[in-house]
Amino acid sequence: EGVGPQEYTLIKMQALELNGKLSALAGAGPVYLLAATLRPETMYGQTNCWVLPEGQYGAFRGLNGEVWICTQRAALNLSYQERTPVRGQPELLLELSGSDLIGTPVSSPHCPHPRVYVLPLLTILTNKGTGVVTSVPSDSPDDYTALMDLKKKPKLREKYGVKDEWVMPFEVIPIIDIPGFGNMAAVKVCEDMKIGSQNDTAKLAEAKQQVYLKGFTDGVMLVGPHAGRRVAEAKPLIREEMLGAGAALLYSE
Ligand code: A2H
To answer: Which of 152, 214, 233, 243 lies at a 20 to 30 A Cα distance from 92?
Structure first.
């Protein structure tokens, strides 16, 4: 990580049902989970999203009568970046834990599925981004191993109350070709390195080093309106389109 601020795109993923504790938000306005990403162009390959089960989140009053779900820390940063109604004072509507969010169906911009589900990821840091992460197993080794863990381990699904139908139907989607790595670079690197699970953190760090920079600099989009273009060129275009459509927010920290 550099010394300058990190510029994230926050993807607005709309909650399609408000179950359990979330039902208290009925009538409060459209509810969005805000996922922080450095790679908005990968939304074409989204299979799910992630929260930390033990993490603390909140539902906050956003702009235009919307409700935004993220960590308290991210809500405060957003409010100082003038992205909430009152500067410096995010209005907390409802306290939530990650577990309260698991199983929520969401609809996300550019996602090929009309609904994907919120699932548990144990390596989420609550002091980075929003604590909500979009999952793109084709291009992120973290996302690929965590999704495979849930698919392969019924006990893990049981532990976090994850239903089979939130996980099993969702296959890795090729969205970017990286010369030397093919069209599902994260799958290839995880298989080549024999990464067994999301807890294989040392190998995962190495896998990420191999694919992230290369994906951004040498990757070519296979899908969407910018298919055929380099990822480095497509990313800012897709990001601007999402911001213009009100489907995403800028966020830096
Ligand atoms: B990226 P950096 Cl396909 N905890 O989005 C753990 N990981 C987090 C996080 C948190 N609180 N907040 C965001 N992230 C992930 C997509 C993606 C990402 C792809 C490829 C590379 C990639 C799909 N997941 O990141 O430490 C998010 O995953 C490459 C670094 O701030 C976010 O972008 O540099 C990235 O980590 C931000 O990581």
So the answer is: 243
